[in-house]
Amino acid sequence: MEKITINDIARLTGLSKGTVDRVLHNRGEVSKKSYQKVMDTIKELGYEPNLYASLLARAEQRTIALLLPAHEPGTYWELAAKGEAKAQAAIKPLSLVTRQFNYNQYSADSFREACARVLESNPAGVVMAPMFQYETQVFAQELQTRSIPYSLIDTKLETPGYLSFYGIPAYKSGYLCAAMLIGEGPVKEVLIVRIMRDKGRQSDPTVLRRSGFMDYMLEHNPGCTIRSLFIDPEDPAATDSALDAFFDEFPGVRHIAMLNSRVHLIVPFLERHPIDIRVVGFDNLDANLDALRRGTVSALIAQRPEEQVHQAIQALADRIVFQRFPEKTDNYQHMDILIRYNAEDY
Amino acid sequence: MEKITINDIARLTGLSKGTVDRVLHNRGEVSKKSYQKVMDTIKELGYEPNLYASLLARAEQRTIALLLPAHEPGTYWELAAKGEAKAQAAIKPLSLVTRQFNYNQYSADSFREACARVLESNPAGVVMAPMFQYETQVFAQELQTRSIPYSLIDTKLETPGYLSFYGIPAYKSGYLCAAMLIGEGPVKEVLIVRIMRDKGRQSDPTVLRRSGFMDYMLEHNPGCTIRSLFIDPEDPAATDSALDAFFDEFPGVRHIAMLNSRVHLIVPFLERHPIDIRVVGFDNLDANLDALRRGTVSALIAQRPEEQVHQAIQALADRIVFQRFPEKTDNYQHMDILIRYNAEDY
DNA sequence: AAAATTTCCGTTACCGTGCACGGAAATTCA
DNA sequence: TGAATTTCCGTGCACGGTAACGGAAATTTT
Fold it and tell me: What is the pTM of this model?
């Protein structure tokens, strides 16, 4: 089981390793005859280049671009950004670094502009959390022509030739949310609190999540009335009064779901009005975890965005450095259920 | 931002790279003074060895030994063994391989014998799931004198100089189990099904788990009667009749907990007797997951043993190859709550 | 046919570490 | 004090590829 090296090939073909190298990277300047001879004996001996030697000789640092929505402290995308740090450490020994590019998740223009910046940086790979179907496709197309591999996280938009996807199944997460909210028991009415800005937009995962929620309700609790209330994350006072007005009108509601990461927005209201309400939300933001530990929120469904970026970066690194392709393209992750008693070590 | 190499260190200290190398791998033959000087400038310049060059130069394979209880198909320890495969792939580029050594978890002799085999194989590191306090300490001692780093998983026994521990907090897991079983509601009586063989043994995590369970009951439901039933995993018929007898005597019981991974053992009984019983168990064995999906088991608390071995191996690899020490020695993992609706993508 | 190109290939100096080998300096022994 | 060890350290090759450089051979141009 001897290791075949480039020198063996050179010796056997009667050529020099310089020529063999030229063949391997087909950068020309080799006669047809020599080319064939080298290719043949490579195949015959099953030669495989030594990655380390190759990387050592090249010794350049390549970078993986991270294309994420801009994030304020304490918001969902900040969690994702945290995964970058972990991944950094892991890929550093591979001479890879990451670099983050942000865009405004409510502006396609800003996304386009961020894409341009990414391309300009000439990355070895890209991890992105896409929001805009069309723009993302255009970008993916461009990446493909430049043969830059890319992975998707969070939202799986249909784009050509992505290396891998990491995220939770959106529909099922809504279904699970409903199950956590009402269980099997009959409930007369539930409230879904939604974000005003999302009203027109209806991003893909939000729609799917709500549809999973609705289906669970239909299957397990068809008689239940589902009410909606829109709040403005920028305006806590308005949020409070909207909730006040809502409970004036529908005082019997005892179950609230929020299908996004913003459940902490309604926590102040809930804690001022000591009615026993069951509340289920998403994602392990610090503010959410605090509310969970205090008992104001009953359960959270968490999707570990840190893990998503971590794994996506890892997959890209494997592809870039080792030419390894992931076994599965679509990696749906486990949805974590957090309650008061298992949130501590999270 | 120039890359610091071993030559830079040599030049700056006025020594040769041979000496620097000896310091880096502390294989002696270096005077105290030189050692200090090298260490200082390494730290000062933030030198990090080039992985590729190192691997290229060495090109030998070292092995990490995995010391686990022997596992039949479909048992808890089989899950742990699965983590080995994942870790294999990750550490392969580091010229590391893993090798598994098994012992009978009910025989200290067999453990001792397995330890001997591990030592004989001269591993670069050891990951072990210990069961026997005394024997484990002896073994750990021996590893230390040979300066072989080791990590613990699953059960944290007090041993000298372990590199890291990965597992779930045993006490809290029992507490959580009780919470999942009865929630806040008052319950008159619950049944804990236990494994006969464990009766005398009382391994550390089992005791802690039960005590967490009891404390939750005491705090949230003091009036509840807690009954125990011992079953023999080797004898399904006896298990069935024991359960039959139990429910003849206490027909009112509607809540069952099993504080180990064997909840699947009582599933056949439960599915033949269509009483609406809430059942909570541990660990994502296939048989348990199936029962969960069918609704026979209400919830499982999973501890991802695959992750435990994976991370433990990774930590060891970091230590062995990069001389990097983990930030935290004790890594308590998150306890996953599995119910019917989030078990699919697990 | 000589000169000018072009094509093709071998040589060689790296890349950053690991480690065997041998020798100088310091220490211990006789 | 000289010999024998021991301690400590430098030298130099190996690991397997990469790519610049320059030169010989083949081809084209004048």
Answer: 0.83
